[in-house]
Structures
1.
Amino acid sequence: MKLNNFVLIALIIPFLGFSQRYRYTNTLFPSSTITQNVIYGTAPSVDGLGTVESSTTPQNLVMDIYRPTGDTFTNRPVIIFAHPGGFFSGSKNVDDMMAFCDYFARKGYVTATIDYRLGFNVTSNIAMHSTRAVYRGLQDGRTAIRYFRANAATYGIDPNKVYFVGSSAGAFIALHSIYLDQISEKPAETGVIQYSNITPPFSHTAPDLGGLDIGTNLTFNGKPDAVISLWGAIQNTNLITSNNNTPVFLVHGEADTTVPFNTGSPFGYSSLPTTDGSNPIKNKLNSLNFINNETYFVAGVGHEFYGVSNGTWSNGTGGNSYWPIVLDKSTSFLWKQHKPTANYTSTINGLTVNFTDTSTGATAWFWDFGDGTTSNLQSPTHTFATTGNYTVSLYVENLNKSWDEINRSISLTTMGLADNSNSLFKLYPNPSQKNVTVSLSNTSSEINYQIFDCSGKIVGENLFQNCKEFTIDISDFAIGLNFIKLNYDGKNAIGKLIKN
């Protein structure tokens, strides 16, 4: 019993690291565990309806954090989600943001849905007030990113894998966080500016909103490592320079009248600043030859086309037919940002194949040789029992437990050796489990034989005299292909001997 237990443990241990294969693409966890109202920063919020920019109250910025229930891994990417609402309404608790968080947490990510500062004057100086509202949202998004980098150990995340996903207004935050990334690009409207309201009180001085990063954790980078923009836009594509190659996935309905797919004012309201939507953003990225960006543009559909209105399910229960498409494409895009790349070469020598791992970014390996055997070595050597075609699979993981897999077919042939039936001697039965008989056409006074395995090692040899036929016991040989060499009557002959 002790021996059996030892064998069982020895078999299990190499595979423990692969108990959650296909993490981040497959749903591995039955649920997510939510920590609500985590304060990720504090910032001045404009009082009332935002008519007086200088009248502010400190506001705690809060988020809900979702983690895979029961997961003990501590180097996971994190995804931050920012809700829609035109910088005037909405919250972290809208349907689609919570659904996104739960969906990706059950695949192994840590996720969060954030509240950010809302409100601006919609009665006068709309362009100025709306620009300041977007900038405050940008600051809050960067604060959330810095919070996770600073608290990576607390939440079991990789601080270098912080992604940001925004819907509508949240997508303005996401896109500006990667394209408005220099203080020199800061809009003039966000500095000290004099303005007048059409209603009392009239004349005011709007204070400088500060730099891109305000509040705490200022030693950490506030720029995300990848972005998904759901029907978003930016101030203009001049913000995108050759240094702005952060991976981005743009999702947009081509008939969107809320946030323009091309160039125009949000809601078609000319008092709001003109923005560049997903199509000109895509064109600018292409002109810069950026390759790590993807699009999903749908003709004939409008804003929030996967079945929500301001983040709330339109049918009350879930998204429409576009919802799983967006989920699948988002899953694939984010996985590509942290996956290794599986690859290998192979050298065939008889039935023995030397596999050389050429993967990039891998720290663990699992080989399936297609004959019922496996290996966890990085570059194994494997001997197959018989010739034939085999599909060899290499599954690799990296330090994030992200994965990749490659499958290739290899063909094992006789390697140019003549069949034994056509050689100077015969072997039977061949293949065999125990005894093989060697038969010559004539009696020989002296016969020397040697048996080699596929590596060239001699595994058997002997001398027979005055015989035409003799038997060799191969029961102790390794299963697979061997080669037998005979020397008799001044002749040399080689044949294949297979142990099954």
2.
Amino acid sequence: MMDRAALGLDSGDELVIAVLRRLIRFAAVNYGDGVSDGELPTANWVAEVLRASGYEPQILARDDAPERANVVLRIPGRDRALPAVLIHGHLDVVPVEASEWSVDPFAGEIVDGYVTGRGSVDMLDTVATMLATAVEWADEGVTPTRDVVMAFVADEEAGGDYGADWLVRNHAALFAGCAVAVGEDGAQFTPVPAPDGREVRLYPIACAERGAMHSLLHVTGPAGHGSRPTRDNAVAKLVAALNRIAEYRWPLQVSPVVAAQLQASATALGLDVDLDDERSIAAVVAALGPAAGALGFTTRVSAALTVLKAGYKVNVIPGYAEARVDVRYPPGAYKTTLAAMNELIGDEVTWEFPEWGEPPESDPNSEWFAAMRAAIVAADPAAVVVPYCMGGSTDGRAFATLGMQAFGFTPLTQAPGGRLPTHIHVANERNPVDGIVGGHAIMRAFLEA
């Protein structure tokens, strides 16, 4: 049995909660641009916990960034001929403005039935579930049906150049035989009041992600005196392109997963939906309320103007201007989005973006989705399990390039008193203790089956 005290774990907590609180205290903050604190100490501790339970994890990092560490472990299953399952979680968290918090964001405190702290929702709760599951299996002598690969990765919050992307490019053999990648986020209990007064107990599982074109637009022109304006003005050309993007009405593009989400949600709420009618779709989104999440955005491309830089003095025409635009597109819409952006930007402005290609889109009719649904329904017989498309992207994008289906499955169950987790990246981020414990049991049931 693992010595909890020696590993800094509070003895009075459920194991998964003790692990989560310890993970929060590492404060593995990812500031972006290659700067991070705490990932190596976190990875070392994760590996130490696994070794204390008799496993042999690997710690891997880029030669030029040994402090950006990842941990990978393969747990052999009873039938090694079966396809393996990868479950992945990231060790890094986003920065905080401590003055906006009512508690220390890195103390890992339990307040009013919630684990409160940065990463409690995104996604150290799932990392804790992974680690606690491995420890419990070792203590109880449990062997999963098939190989289970656990990847505790760095750098998800800044794109994965030190984490999942790097592992896929340089250590793909670690994931040999994995047919499915299970990561953030989905399968979290969401109560939805139906129009007829019923409470629908919704558990959305992510089967797709939107793609991202984090676009840099830039243009050059002759610099000059502000008293002598010219039509060849870098700022004017850039602003014209940005205005075309901002004013463009992107057409409706309902991917198969979003169509399945709309149909399943409408059925659960006792509604009908016409997937070719924007008003019909909007009615379902409105009926879901907060449970709709990103659904209102995943039916078409979105383009948000986020950064604009030009000039340094009012009477000087600058010779260079640049802007950044966050473009997100539905699964399967890469080529059409690229063509539209080229036309909107025009020939006078240069643009570029990281080449990530099509986002992952997995089958909600697959045996993997069915197994996730079965684990949820076993814990909550009234559960309504629906597929959904995430508004952003995750490390699932990287693992999908190895041929895996990628799902967001980080279950949480109902907690007393109507306690629900906060959104991600907010001040006073918190997650209900009972929901985490119940979600941990669902994840164990899925991985063991």
3.
Amino acid sequence: MAPSFPARVAIVCLLALAAAGCDRQSPPAGQANVASPDEAAANVASPDEAGAAAAPTAMVGLDRSHKGRPAPTVSFAGPDGKPVTLAAFKGKPVLVNLWATWCGPCIAELPTLQKLAASNAVRVVAISQDTQDPAKVPAFLKAHGAPTIAPYVDSKMALSLAYQANLPTTILFDSAGKEVWRWNGGNDWSGAPAAALIAEAS
């Protein structure tokens, strides 16, 4: 027996919904890499889970999915204004922090990077991703709790593009210049959890 008219309408509607992907909307343009809160939580390791590997889609927290990769070869300006690359820091472990003067979480963690640098536990290289008025970076560091951190500037944002990074992003390299892990988002770099992570470099 053929379905009744209301049943046929219901079947057509169900098929239309299935063809439309169950009415799930695609993310807006420019947000293709944004994870849902559940996806982000599933892919992020907290400092207490330092031994666990995070998935490459981690939005905030520890990401070990790039371990062993060499640093990008792009150049940026050193404190003297001359071009330098991350290869210049081989020989000792280094913590590279990508930040900007317009980034709130970046500014909040600057004093903790200062404490870490003063502890001599690892070399700290903070590289500003400011594209306008890079000359303000040295004074900005001094005014925001990081007076002795050298002012490196990447005004072309070449490192952010190479890492496809949101700011702040912090990367630990071992003495051979290979990535150990990266941290997406702000962090307290002066605390014990951070010290345990940094101790992984050799």
4.
Amino acid sequence: MNQEEKPSQETLDQWSKDPKNWIWGMFYYNPKDKRIFPPKKIAWMGFTTNFANTKSILAMIGILIFVALVILTIETKKAP
């Protein structure tokens, strides 16, 4: 597949459901998949991180840092 071609929805669904793309059944790892947050195996359960995609990992780290900063800010405002 050419890098400029986008995979079809059918291909994306196959990747998400393929057990070879899941490490220990819970970590999604597919270098062909360029989506930042692909759906979980069971789509209604939300999204996951593609650990083969650097942008996906950086986005997840950014979200975690943001949440930690919000919690830290709230906790420091509570202090007497």
